[in-house]
């Protein structure tokens, strides 16, 4: 096969991929449980339903749980099935990823699962004081370079943002395969005297059987990346804490 023919096939494949992505984005615009606010709506002002999620959107008084950096929304969808008495909202900037979870939630008629396509930097534009009960951070980009430390989702800047809307006693969960990022988070928890409830460097190897059946069931929900990392032999680290 010639170089130019290979290049042509590559370009054709890329065009098909872009076309499929655009189709998914357009379809997602019709999903009633997906919000895609424009940059100005969350950067220069506040999300119009901030502080009013339960009355305006959820139509119930059930707890609100966030999945930050939700990717394909495996946790939002999985937890939504396990806990119909709670509301789950997944946040991510990648629309093509969100589409998958949003489509599943729609097909499975999960009325308690929602998604927001935006940067997590703007998270405080969406929720008011004490509006959120729990946070899941599942396999975020560990931002390993020191110069990008402030972009880690457990960096001080983000922790301070979570405090603005998380209820007193609200729990933050973290699952990651990156040991450096995990240790960094443990250090942040210790440095700030947050309440570390539990942690393990090898969730499925040393700890999962010690947990109660319901917790095991929840933690057995695996994201696309978790399955990928586990297949490569990476240990999965898990912790939960409260401010």
How would you explain this protein's 3D organization?
The chain is of the alpha/beta class. The protein has 2 domains: 1-30; 33-242, 3-Layer(aba) Sandwich (Rossmann fold). The chain has 10 helices and 8 strands. It has an 8-stranded mixed sheet, sandwiched between helices. Helix 1 crosses helix 5 (95-107).
List the main descriptive attributes of the protein structure presented here.
single chain; 243 residues; alpha/beta; Rossmann fold; 2 domains; eight-stranded mixed beta sheet; 10 helices; 8 strands; globular
How do the helices and strands follow one another from N- to C-terminus? HEHHEHEHEEHEHEHHHE
Gross morphology is globular
What's the CATH H-level homologous superfamily of the largest domain?
Vaccinia Virus protein VP39
Give me the CATH fold name of the largest domain: Rossmann fold
Content-based structural category: alpha/beta
Structural Rg: 19 Å
**CATH class type of the largest domain:** Alpha Beta
Could you give a short account of the major beta sheet?
A: 8 strands, mixed
Number of helices: 10
Helix amount: 40-55%
Q: How many distinct domains? A: 2
């Amino acid at each position: 096969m010639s170089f130019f023919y290979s290049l042509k096939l590559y370009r054709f494949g890329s065009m098909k991929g872009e076309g499929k992505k655009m189709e998914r984005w357009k379809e997602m615009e019709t999903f009633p449980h997906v919000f895609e606010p424009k940059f100005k709506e969350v950067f220069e002002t506040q999300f119009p339903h901030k502080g009013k999620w339960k009355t305006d959107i959820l139509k119930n008084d059930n707890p609100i749980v966030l999945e930050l950096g939700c990717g394909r929304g495996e946790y939002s969808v999985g937890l939504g099935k396990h806990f119909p008495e709670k509301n789950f909202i997944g946040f991510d900037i990648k629309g093509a990823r969100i589409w998958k979870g949003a489509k599943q939630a729609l097909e499975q008629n999960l009325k308690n699962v929602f998604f927001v396509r935006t940067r997590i930097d703007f998270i405080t534009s969406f929720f008011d004081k004490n509006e959120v009960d729990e946070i899941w951070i599942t396999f975020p980009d560990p931002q390993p370079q020191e110069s990008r430390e402030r972009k880690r989702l457990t960096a001080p800047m983000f922790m301070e943002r979570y405090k603005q809307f998380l209820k007193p006693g609200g729990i933050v969960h973290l699952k990651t395969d990156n040991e450096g990022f995990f240790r960094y988070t443990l250090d942040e928890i210790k440095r700030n005297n947050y309440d570390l409830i539990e942690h393990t460097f090898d969730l499925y190897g040393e700890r999962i059987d010690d947990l109660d059946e319901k917790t095991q069931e929840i933690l057995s929900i695996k994201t696309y990346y978790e399955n990928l990392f586990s297949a490569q032999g990476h240990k999965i680290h898990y912790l939960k804490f409260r401010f």
